Amino acid sequence: MRFDLIDAAKEEFPVRRLCKVLGVSPSGYFAWKDRPACHRQHRDMVLLAHVRSAFRLSNGTYGSPRMRHELQAEGSPSGVAGRPG
């Protein structure tokens, strides 16, 4: 969470200062920045892209039941959309 804040504010403030204020090391931030996304993060990003696309194609009218049905029908890349609920 702290690294996300640093990443969002790095255009306005120096990274070293942000790290000091948030109590993390700059090397820790840069290691986090260079680390590839884990499998779950990658899957979540793909699912989010599918959700945004389906929502856009529905002109913003799909709620969660219709969205889940749409994602299941297109073979959602994640089991998340297939969960009942």
Task: Describe this protein with a few key phrases.
5 helices, 85 residues, 0% strand, mainly alpha
Q: Could you walk me through the main structural features you see in this protein, from its secondary elements to its overall organization?
A:
The chain is mainly α and 85 residues long. The chain has 2 domains: 2-34; 39-82. The chain contains 5 helices and no strands. Helix 1 runs antiparallel to helix 2. This is Transposase.
Instruction: Describe the sheet with the most strands.
Output: none
Q: What is the number of domains? A: 2
**Individual helix count:** 5
Beta strand %: under 5%
Low-confidence stretches: 81-85
- What gross morphology would you assign? elongated
Per DSSP E runs of 2 or more residues, the count of β-strands stands at: 0
Mean pLDDT: 82
Q: Rounded to an integer, what's the Rg over CA atoms?
A: 18 Å
Q: Kindly, what is the distance between the CA atoms of the first and last residues, rounded to a whole number of angstroms?
A: 28 Å
Helix content: 55-70%
Run of helices and strands = HHHHH
SS class: mainly alpha
Organism: Aureimonas glaciei
Protein name: Transposase
Ordered list of secondary-structure elements with their pairings:
Blueprint: H1 2-9, H2 15-22, H3 26-34, H4 39-57, H5 64-73
Helix pairs in contact: 1-2
